[in-house]
Write a structure and sequence with these properties.
Elements lengths: L9 H6 L7 H12 L5 E6 L6 E8 L4 E7 L8 H11 L22 E5 L11 E5 L4 E2 H4 L5 H20 L7 E4 L9 E2 L4 E4 L24 H18 L22 H18 L9 E3 L9 E3 L7 E4 L7 E3 H4 L30 H27 L1 H9 L3 H8 L8 H11 L2 H8 L17 H28 L13 H5 L6
Antiparallel strand pairs: 1-2, 2-3, 3-5, 4-5, 6-11, 7-9, 8-9, 10-13, 11-12
Keywords: Coiled coil, Mitochondrion, Transit peptide
Protein name: Altered inheritance of mitochondria protein 9, mitochondrial
Family: Belongs to the AIM9 family.
Length: about 500
């Protein structure tokens, strides 16, 4: 029997996670960072994520430090580490609404004690970050056992943190660095210590995107960001003969199904550029550059072990870009749920017959009620503290918001969906609503994108095929018991997972 871990391109996957480093040097660097003649007594390798090796180092006096070693797949060498450090160290400067994550805006993040972003200068032979261990306990370990009021308290704090991030506007887009870590030719200076340089966002490097030579910032406007994003996707399509299958939403290429083509993808990108300036939000605040934590789930949130309603630290700032609000701001993963959505600020309600329901159904109803309550609490807090953030959440569901949010994955998948959205937005009523009316009640700007009746029919046909193939993949994933968005990585319990699909 072939071991299950060989089923998903194991050699290549292992290679992008392989690091050779000096363990003795790691201990020495940790002792230096701890200071005061600290002596290491134990090093523990923590469970490995996708992008880093993580070690817990315990000193003789009981003090514990975390050392992070980025894997080759973590992002661009030097820049990924340098930007992560700067994001956690940045100071509030002058009149600009920019900040030091750990102190000035009261966003609890681990304190960086020492780092090296250049392998040639590293005693370990690899890049590293030494930081204080996040105090408390990982929220994911205790969430299910928390009282509802404690969960509500945590959600309110997450709302405060995201509102702070949303209000802190940057004058440029890219990623944050200490000035010593980025050259003048590739950065915009913020103050004596910090600058904005090339982006480290993973969307610019995943699925072979790192192999193409394209501008990666910094940029002076949201429109420039979107044009660079399209250039990135276009360059990938022109350079590579295949598309990344593991990120595709459907099972394509079957009889009567949707067939991916380079020309269809390039056509969507060209059409988008024709109307891109009109799709951007008119409110300049919504186009401002912000730092946004992309993974605010319960495993990146630490709470006080004695008072679990109090957040003590937010971890994992790796690959955090400075992007336009409309492109990055979204609801935190912590409050996302499956089930009926609330209508605006409507209060969630329990079923009238809750007392007579069987235990399983009653428990499900209570869980749904709590999930909706957490969602509503977050929205209310955001509306009070940063209404422009709530505006962005609503904007993501509009036609322009959907187009702006999906065009950046064209190289991977989704071009029939984006094409259908473009066809919808150039309809007379939609276009007029987008650009406004002139004194005669007509669109104030003539739409530069036109489709013939035959074009519109083709768009509908191809989108229907694509949608059907996406539904097919969803059913397959449900049958084998894995989540939608699964990248194909195979766990050790592969045989147990796939048994429902085995012939009887």
């Amino acid at each position: 029997m072939v071991p299950s871990f060989l089923l998903w391109d194991e050699p290549a996957q292992m290679l992008v996670r392989y690091l050779q480093f000096n363990m003795d040097a790691l201990i020495h660097v940790a002792e230096e960072a701890a200071g005061d003649g600290s002596v290491c007594v134990e090093v523990t390798k923590l469970p490995e994520g996708n992008s880093n090796k993580v070690f817990l180092v315990t000193m003789q006096d009981g003090r514990q430090l975390i050392i992070i070693l980025p894997n080759p797949n973590a992002g661009p060498v030097h820049y990924t580490t340098a930007s992560e450090v700067a994001t956690m160290q940045f100071k509030e400067i002058g009149i600009l609404s920019i900040f030091k994550v750990r102190e000035k805006l009261h966003i609890p993040a681990p304190k960086v004690l020492k780092y090296c972003s250049r392998t040639s200068e590293s005693k370990l032979g690899v890049e590293y970050i030494v930081m204080e261990k996040a105090p408390g306990v990982e929220l994911g370990r205790i969430w299910e056992g928390l009282k509802s009021r404690d969960k509500l308290s945590i959600v309110k704090q997450i709302a405060a943190i995201t509102c702070t991030l949303a209000r802190s506007h940057f004058p440029y887009h890219g990623a944050l660095y200490r000035r010593q870590d980025v050259s003048q030719s590739e950065s915009f200076v913020l103050d004596d210590e910090f600058a904005i340089g090339p982006t480290t966002g993973r969307a610019w490097f995943d699925n072979r995107r790192a192999e193409v030579e394209v501008p990666r910032g910094p940029w002076i406007s949201a429109e420039n960001v979107m044009k660079a994003l399209v250039q990135r996707e276009t360059t990938c399509l022109e350079k590579f003969s295949t598309f990344p299958r593991d990120t595709q939403q459907g099972i394509f290429g079957g009889p009567g199904g949707y067939h991916l083509t380079k020309e269809a993808k390039l056509s969507v990108l060209r059409d988008f550029l024709k109307i891109c300036p009109h799709l951007l939000p008119r409110n300049e605040k919504l186009c401002a550059g912000v730092i946004w934590h992309n993974d605010l789930h319960m495993h990146n949130i630490f709470v006080d072990s004695e008072n679990p309603s109090q957040i003590t630290s937010i971890i994992d700032w790796q690959g955090t870009p400075i992007n336009p609000m409309f492109l990055v701001c979204h609801h935190p993963s912590l409050i996302e749920y499956e089930g009926p959505e609330l209508d605006g600020f409507a209060q969630p309600v329990l079923p009238d017959n809750i007392r007579t329901l069987d235990p399983e159904t009653k428990e499900a109803a209570k869980d749904s009620f709590l999930s909706q309550s957490l969602w509503l609490t977050y929205e209310i807090e955001v509306q009070r503290a940063a209404p422009e953030l709530l505006h962005i959440f609503r904007h993501r569901d509009t036609l322009p918001g959907q187009i702006l949010g999906t065009i950046g994955s064209t190289y991977d998948d989704g071009e029939p969906y984006v094409q259908s959205l473009l066809a919808d937005i150039i309809e007379d009523h939609a276009w007029t609503e987008l650009v406004g009316e002139d004194e005669n009640g007509n669109a104030s700007v003539l739409c530069p994108l036109r489709y013939s009746e035959q074009d519109m029919e083709n768009v509908k046909t191809e989108y229907a095929k694509w949608e059907k193939d996406v539904e097919r993949k969803t059913r397959v994933l449900e049958e084998i018991g894995v989540y939608v968005g699964w990248n194909g990585a195979v766990s050790k319990d592969y045989d147990e997972v796939t048994w429902p699909c085995s012939p009887s």
